[in-house]
Amino acid sequence: MLSEIPLVTLLFGIVAAGNSVESRSDTLTDRIENEHAIKIEIDAAVRKYTEPLLQELEKLNEDTRKETAVLRQDLDTLKQENALLNERFHTTKAENEKRQHHLLSVVEYIGMNQKDTIKSRKKRQPIEAVAFHAYQNSDKCIHDLQTFVYDNVLINDGNGYSANDGIFDAPVTGVYVFTWSVADFHDWYAAELVVNGMSRGATIADNDSQDIAVGTAVVVVHVQAGSHVFVRRSGGGGCNVLNKPGSATNSFSGWLLYITEP
C-alpha cells in the first residue's frame, strides 16, 4: 500500500511532521526556560525575605549564646559564693559550738568559784554580834513548865531576846553559849534550858537552912536560825523565886560563839 501513495504526498507529510515536532520542541524549551526564570525569581524573592530573617535569627542566637555564657558565669559565681557561705556557715557553727562549750565551762568554773568564795567568805566573815543578858526585877511565882520572863534587859545585841515573853530567837545559825541562874530561899527550885522544845540543860537551887541558894548552869549548843530558846521551871518545893538585886537574881544570858553552815 505504501507504494500506492504518491511521493509528493509523502514528502509533504514528512515535512509537516518535522515542522510539528520542531514547533513542539520550541514550546517545551520556552516552558522550561520560563519555569527556570520563575524559579530564579522565586529563589531571589525567598532570599530577599529570608536572608534578613536568617540574619536576625543569627543575631538572636548570638545574643542568646552571650546571655547564656553570662548566666553560666553568674551561676558559677553563685556556686562559688554558695560554697563559701556553706564553708563559713559550718566554720561559724563549729566556732559557735566551741565558744558555747567554752562559755559553759566558764560558767561552771565561775559557779564553782562562787560557791568556794561564798564558803570561804562564810568561814572568814567576822562573828555577827549576838549577845544578850537579862534578869528579873522582883520576886515572882513561877509554876512548873512556866517560862521565866526576864524583864530587865542589860544587853541585847542582835535583838534576839524579847522581854515580853522571855524567848530568845536565834538570828543566825551557829554555836551558842547560854547560862542561866535561879535563886531560892529555904527551899529547892529547878530550871531548865529549852531549845525548840527540847531540854538542853538544867540547874537547881536547894537549901534547907535560912540562907539563899543559887543554882547556875552553862550550856554550849548548836542552834539553827529562828530557833526558840528559853528557860522554864522544871520543878521545886514552892513557886516563889528570889530576886534580890545586889545579892541574888534570876538571870538569863547567851551569846554567839561562831557561825556555822545552815
From TrEMBL:
Protein's UniProt keywords contain Transcription: no
Provide GO CC annotations from the record: extracellular region
* Record's signal peptide: 1-17
Q: Where in the cell is it found?
A: Secreted
For this protein, the record's InterPro entries field holds: C1q_dom, Cerebellin_Synaptic_Org, Tumour_necrosis_fac-like_dom
Principal place of residence: secreted
> Keywords in UniProt for this one?
Coiled coil, Secreted, Signal
Q: Which residues cross the membrane?
A: none
Where is coiled-coil annotated?
54-95
Domain named C1q is located at 125-262
UniProt entry tagged with the keyword Coiled coil = yes
SUPFAM superfamilies assigned to the protein according to its UniProt record, in alphabetical order: TNF-like
According to UniProt, the name of this protein is: C1q domain-containing protein
Organism per entry: Dreissena polymorpha
